[in-house]
Amino acid sequence: MPGHSMFSLPGCLRGAAFWVLVYSYCLLCACTALVKLLCSILMRQHRTFHRMNREVAPGCLNDPFLGTHCYVRIKDSGLRFHYVAAGERGKPLMLLLHGFPEFWYSWRHQLREFKSTYRVVALDLRGYGETDSPTNKDCYKLDCVIVDIKEIVDSLGYTKCVLVGHDWGGMIAWLVAICYPEMVTRLVILSFPHPAVFTEYILRHPSQLIKSGYYFFFQMPWFPELMYSVNDFKLFKDLFTSRATGIVKHGCRFTEEDMEAYLYIFSQPGALSGPLNHYRNILSCLPLKHHKVTMPTLLLWGENDAFVEVEMAEQTRVYVKNYFQLSVLSHASHWLQQDQPELVNTLIWTFLEEDRFHSKD
């Protein structure tokens, strides 16, 4: 039948077809990973399970020019959150939400840049870094994470903020903006489309399904944690340094100290399970019941993003019922704010200064 697809099936069949697809692809990803692990054991048995001992934090994580390390305990969950803050108290709040597999340090360039005008707060999300990491997988449902952000804004003494999110932090930022529109004055998203666009696009485009294969692989217990840690976190390192997925721009590549900062955080006991548990709950509030984003929005995208296809960026426009600006950065990878920090900062400044002329507020 012309135009026939999973989207034309009755609701119950569509749901069943979706879950068959999810678990089938999960099994395929797991088998692929298992083959890679077995090859590694056969070829480099003595190195496969070797890990460097990382007990001392690299100096860059305590650089006073990046800001002050702080902690806040929120009422709803009782969890203690870690964040780094720069800029004077009382200035407008700019809240930064990192992606996977990252932590507050991914915003080091923005902490320096925006502290002149904002109280800039780079958060460690639930389960990441020095923030508490519940062991129960259900504690990472998106509903819980969204409430985290609202309570953190309240605990910091603010009612509104400029909300900035990258990758998985972008997903969370979209949902916060949808659920608590009164709290978000301006929304800046890097490298992630509106969640409704993502869920529809991934099922219609096999190429994006393949690029998002890790979502399905992460549904498995313990095995993804193992794969990310073998060969002294080689897979983890490759995400940021390989030609296919990493930062390749000269002068912006990870220094040895930058990489060690990431490895120090994620090599701590149990440090991978919290971040992966976010993905194990990705479908907890999808598909969305509400879609509209009502505040001015800037969406930044890397032309060479290895994980999300640029076609989703333009499709996001329909869900923003206010001024919407899209900028696709030439030769940029998925790790935008670290790949091209000067350009990203300039685009954010321009948006914050100019969008008032377009705002429908």
From TrEMBL:
A Pfam family cross-referenced in the UniProt record is Abhydrolase_1
Q: Among its keywords, does the record have Membrane?
A: yes
InterPro entries for the chain: AB_hydrolase_1, AB_hydrolase_fold, Epox_hydrolase-like
Q: Which Gene3D superfamilies match?
A: alpha/beta hydrolase
Q: Which family does it belong to?
A: Belongs to the AB hydrolase superfamily. Epoxide hydrolase family.
PANTHER family attached to this UniProt entry: EPOXIDE HYDROLASE
State the protein's name.
AB hydrolase-1 domain-containing protein
Q: What organism is the protein native to?
A: Hymenochirus boettgeri
